[in-house]
Design goal:
462 residues; binds zinc ion; alpha+beta; Arc Repressor Mutant, subunit A; elongated; 8-stranded mixed sheet
């Protein structure tokens, strides 16, 4: 049974503003329930005042995602009862969102953006030990009123691989825009359906890796259900480590009874204001890749791989101040990314400095280390960043010195007198064998080119 998967995303990004969406409370980390006021605690009679920066940031994101930004958008109240929501409604956008109909390009495919809406975050609930066994829950209202942008895609993805590429590029984009930093919250809801079956939503996933695992598990689970002759029901599930668990049968958006928030006037954006924001947009990942391609003469795939994480692109541009750009791009886009992939970590999660990487590449350029040994060294460096030369010494990976090499060649030539005689009689093929012997004896710590030269000189002495 072959059924295509259809996957959509709802991404909640906390915007990098200093204060909350509707009050002046700080968004900095603090001890629980210390950054609160009557507005974000939903006290009767308190009035929300919209944070202008959050609107500008949302427009920046909308423009970067090729969306249409209408002149007028509005806030609605989404009603539901939950202890993290003291007003019993969340201020969000329903019928008139800040932006609609955009796209982000990945892997020769346009993923369509259905809408972008601005909304407030509820408070944070924690369950000591685990939600299933906890006798009580704790609520921190510091998060209540944090400004979020919710980006909703069409169900255009057909695999977890596409989702991973998209989310990486999306995060790189919001970091380039400067509207998001790694300390901010980032949560994803994903909906997955296969064939014409109902869709299942998985809520509140906190990292790209977990989104990928949740989708892979969910596709596997749904296929298994169908293969056992059962039906898939529309429901909401949560990600639980490596699997998904049912939470509730899916409610519809209508059940939340959205009404326009009478405390907040419509947002009116003039064409002039939108144009001003457009003009001030910083360089975005695709533009940066294009510039790198022209400026450093690296190839397109390398440039795209490098900008897929902002931290990696910044790192590369520091490295090329000291190292030939093509050489650096080669090592980053192949070996470095391979090691990261193998360990299932992102560049932003490691502490390798540009200085350490520059020293590493210089070891290779100076032929102090062979390519094979450099590969081994890099694997260690990624996991435990440190001085590359000292680490290479410790791991016995540095090439032999000329003296050491010369002694080694003498031994090999003495041992293989027959081959040396054949070489002297003009059998040049034997040379490759002798080089191989030396490299084997050196345990890969000799450069083949230098070995060749030395053997050619020395063979006549034997
Ligand atoms: Zn407040």
């Amino acid at each position: 049974m072959h059924l295509n998967a259809k996957i959509g995303l709802e991404i909640h990004v906390q915007l990098n503003t200093k204060s909350k969406l509707f009050c002046t409370c700080s968004t900095n980390l603090a001890k629980p329930n210390s950054h609160v006021c009557e507005v974000c605690l939903g006290m009767p009679g308190s009035k929300p005042v919209l944070n202008k920066k959050a609107v500008d940031f949302s427009v920046m994101l909308a423009l970067a995602l090729n969306c249409k930004v209408p002149k007028i958008s509005r806030f609605d109240r989404k009603t539901y009862f939950y202890p993290d929501l003291p007003k019993n409604y969340q201020i969000t956008q329903y019928n008139f969102p800040i932006a609609q109909k955009g796209y982000l390009q990945i892997l020769n495919k346009k993923i369509q953006i259905r809408r972008i809406q601005i909304e407030e975050d509820p408070g944070a609930i924690t369950y000591p030990y685990h939600i299933d066994v906890s006798k009580y829950s704790l609520i921190d209202y510091n998060r209540s009123g944090f400004p979020l942008c919710e980006v909703v895609t069409e169900p255009d993805f057909s695999s977890s691989k596409e989702v991973k590429k998209f989310l990486k590029m999306f995060i790189s984009m919001i970091k380039h825009l400067g509207i998001y930093s790694s300390n901010n919250s980032f949560r994803v809801d994903t909906n997955v359906s296969i064939g014409r079956n109902p869709r299942v939503e998985i809520k509140n996933i906190g990292s790209i890796k977990d989104v990928v695992s949740a989708i892979e598990y969910e596709i596997y689970r749904q296929k298994f259900v169908l293969e056992s002759g059962k039906k898939i029901t529309q429901q909401t599930r949560r990600f639980a480590g490596s699997t998904t668990e049912a939470m509730r049968e899916k409610e519809t958006e209508e059940e939340y009874g959205h009404i326009i928030d009478p405390d907040l006037p419509p947002i009116v954006l003039t064409a002039l204001h939108i144009n001003q924001i457009k003009k001030k947009l910083p360089e975005l990942p695709y533009q940066r890749a294009k510039r790198m391609f022209n400026q450093y003469k690296i190839n397109k795939h390398q440039a795209l791989a490098i900008v897929s994480e902002k931290e990696l692109a910044d790192f590369y541009e520091k490295v090329v101040k000291h190292i030939e750009p093509k050489f650096a791009a080669g090592w980053i886009s192949t070996q470095l990314l391979k090691v990261l992939n193998y360990n299932n970590i992102y560049f932003s999660e490691i502490n390798l400095t540009s200085q350490q990487f520059i020293s590493f590449l210089k070891l290779i350029q100076a032929k102090e280390i062979s390519d094979r040994a450099a590969d081994l060294l890099l694997r260690e460096l990624v996991l435990k960043p440190q001085n590359p030369k000292k680490l290479a010494e410790k791991l016995n990976l540095l090439n032999l010195t000329e003296d050491e090499l010369s002694k080694l060649i003498n031994i090999v030539l003495k041992k293989n007198k027959d081959s040396v005689d054949q070489y002297k009689k003009g059998k040049t093929k034997v040379l490759a064998f002798l080089i191989g012997q030396v490299i084997r004896e050196s345990k890969g710590r000799a450069d083949a080119k230098i070995v060749k030269e030395l053997i050619m000189k020395k063979s006549f002495l034997y």
